[in-house]
Amino acid sequence: MGDIGKADFRNVMGSFAAGVTVVTTVTDAGVPVGLTATAFSSLSFEPPLCLVCIDSRSASHAAILASRKFAVNMLASQQVELSNRFASRSEDKFEGLAHAPGEATGCPILEGVLASMECVVSDVLAGGDHSIFVGELRRVAVHVGSPLVYFRGGYRELADG
Ligand SMILES: Cc1cc2nc3c(=O)[nH]c(=O)nc-3n(C[C@H](O)[C@H](O)[C@H](O)COP(=O)(O)O)c2cc1C
């Protein structure tokens, strides 16, 4: 087997259509933090666990390690702007943005999302240049709408959405 380069890895993973999330947390000082993430999955029913894989160089990584909690905001099809905003490294991603603290954890829940879940970190596992944050679900919300989908480097909507 030859070495798999970054471009090969990106191309093959891009073929796996993914829902888009914004994972958020809040610092002790009350500052909201977040990033766009597609590396999100359910993990366990009993107890109810999910996981999200986060680049150890990102600002959100340090913030979630410290706060030990996060919210997963599942974006709706009309929220491309939010995905781009939270994929940037700007420091004021929440500037002018409608959001509210989640009732279970205080982590920011963004207005208009398709669904959200609040989690308390139960484990942090090393995974190369990322960490796997395992979260135990504390509160969920599901709304009407269709998802934002990321596929082969671009945003898509479900054909029958
Ligand atoms: C569609 C999409 C999916 C992404 N998925 C992830 C992911 O799963 N994990 C991750 O660490 N970064 C992911 N990123 C990159 C982060 O959003 C990006 O590095 C961000 O600038 C990090 O912000 P921060 O340093 O403020 O935390 C993704 C970006 C895009 C556009």
Commentary on this structure:
The chain has about 160 residues and is of the alpha+beta class. It has a single domain (about 5-10, about 20-155), classed as Electron Transport, Fmn-binding Protein, Chain A (Pnp Oxidase, Chain A, Roll), CATH 2.30.110. The chain contains three helices and twelve strands; from the N terminus they run αβββββαβαββββββ. It has helices spanning about 5-15, 60-65, 80-85, and strands at about 20, 20-25, 30-35, 40-45, 50-55, 70-75, 100, 110, 115-125, 130-140, 150, 155. The strands form three sheets. The chain has a seven-stranded antiparallel beta sheet with strand order 3-2-6-9-10-5-4, sandwiched between helices. Strands 1-11-12 form a three-stranded antiparallel beta sheet, with no helix packed on it. Strands 7-8 form a two-stranded antiparallel sheet. β11 and β12 form a beta hairpin. The longest helix is centred in the first third of the chain and has 9 residues, at about 5-15. The model has no long low-confidence stretch (mean pLDDT about 95). Flavin mononucleotide binds near residues 37, 55, 59, 60 and 89.
**CATH-level-4 superfamily name:** Electron Transport, Fmn-binding Protein, Chain A
Sheet with most strands: strand arrangement:
3-2-6-9-10-5-4
Summarize the main sheet: 7 strands, antiparallel
Q: Which CATH top level class fits?
A: Mainly Beta
The tally of strands reads 12
Proportion in helices: 10-25%
State the end-to-end distance. Answer: 40 Å
- Put simply, the count of helices is 3
Which second-level CATH architecture applies? Roll
- The chain-level structural class is alpha+beta
Overall average pLDDT? 96
What fold name goes in the CATH topology slot? Answer: Pnp Oxidase, Chain A
